[in-house]
Design brief:
alpha+beta
Length: 163
Amino acid sequence: MQVTVKANFNKQTKDSKKELIQFYVKGEDEKKQELSQMTREVVELQIEGVEQSLTCEFNKTSKDSKKTVLDFIVKGDTSAEQSFNFYKMAGSDVTLNIIESQMSIDEFHDSEHQGVKYKVHSDGTAEVSPDQMTLDDVHEEEDLPFTDIDDSEDPFDDDDLLD
């Protein structure tokens, strides 16, 4: 499913947990049935004139007497280049294409939570898995000599280099 609407790219906000973008839709485009059908789905957002697209959760639609507000949560692994070119359009009127994604809402949320798993205790200390690599482990590996190179059959003899 796909819908194209004339909208005002109202705002973009980002905090430590998520990135939100918001559009205002006015006029006849507010009445498009597809807007309510795609709410709570994963969608691809495209703005006419911008090459990049964003994968988002179509979080909610809200209406008042003057406009319809479309709120989207941006997928966590969006590159800075994608975001920058897209957000240059903030504050202006745009033609917005909303395309239903093949990604499920569960896949969208699961991919956001990658990283080190940990548990926080009541005293404020954090505990990570004992299998988690530490910085000390990295330094130890850097100090190890290469052992996977077989130099017993060196094609270059050092004596040949001196001739």
